[in-house]
Amino acid sequence: MNSQSDNAVFQQHNHASCIHDALITAKKLCKERGLRLTDTRLRVLELIWQSHKPIGAYDILAQFGQEGRNSAPPTVYRALEFLQENGLVHRIASLNAFMGCVCPQEGHQGGFLICKQCKRAQEITEDTLRKQLLSLAQEQDFEVESMTLEISGLCTTCRTAQ
Amino acid sequence: MNSQSDNAVFQQHNHASCIHDALITAKKLCKERGLRLTDTRLRVLELIWQSHKPIGAYDILAQFGQEGRNSAPPTVYRALEFLQENGLVHRIASLNAFMGCVCPQEGHQGGFLICKQCKRAQEITEDTLRKQLLSLAQEQDFEVESMTLEISGLCTTCRTAQ
DNA sequence: GCTCAATTGTTATAACATTACATTTCTTAC
DNA sequence: GTAAGAAATGTAATGTTATAACAATTGAGC
Ligand SMILES: [Zn+2]
Ligand SMILES: [Zn+2]
Ligand SMILES: [Zn+2]
Ligand SMILES: [Zn+2]
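^ Those are the sequences you sent over. The predicted structure of the assembly is below.
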């Protein structure tokens, strides 16, 4: 894969199928693990995938409002908690926002390239660096539980458009 | 340096002199760059260094209250903005808190090892990984502006104490 | 001293997140 | 099938973090 094709993946793909696939995978994983992917949780996950950008809890809440669900913040935050705990979504601390995980697995910690202009975020699936970060921490005698890696800047499209 | 001595540095040092040095350095840097390190800004920086842990904006505000300064949030946030812009403090996104930078220089982006138990944070000054992250981003044709790297877990002391 | 820009004060509000407790729904055992 | 207990959701209130908008003050350069 060169950067050209990577960018194509980032910029445009069959988003309908990407949402669909993510939901299928989520259902499968939850079934396997005996987890209850309830209506609320599923809908939150779907909205996150549909947004195609990091989305805030209150944006999700607003959508719920438009759909006639009369929900309050805890409804959304609980669903987000469930989805995060089970590796289906990541929270992006620097944005107070959430993204669907492209490689859902418990315990996995995502890294992101976040475009300041188009506001899209691309998950870093590369694992070499993560391992290096782990060994860096170990050198300092530090026991890692989780990592936040968020790189902010300009994506290809936005940069070339300037 | 082995991890033993690193930890000693992390755990206990002459904190009074560490605060003092940080303030001296800050004053020097601001003078060199023609920046105004005003009373408010200096006091915010001092409180950050005194805390010895990541400290929240509203904690700083509370201190100001105790000192008879009748300040509102913008006062503190403006000072924090100044200090961040000029590389004197870092914001830790996963904690909504601030730490003094141990190697103040404009544009430099800090990484942190954050202990979940004692709440201390140790800045990662190692630069190799940062460069690798940059090249990872470049491979994806992404232009980096800033990086957030926050590793959460247990520091030596807290782990051995268990 | 005058002028303009930078800084700070002040009020209000926005944005993000949690606590606490009541109610409903689901699961399991009988 | 039903009762009991656990899990999930509803609801109201509140806590926490951050910014907008505009007025007043201060400081540097002329
Ligand atoms: Zn992921
Ligand atoms: Zn972009
Ligand atoms: Zn630093
Ligand atoms: Zn610790």
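The domain at 15-161 of chain B is CATH 1.10.10.10 (Arc Repressor Mutant, subunit A). Confidence is low (pLDDT under 50) at residues 1-9 of chain B.

Shout if you want it in another format.
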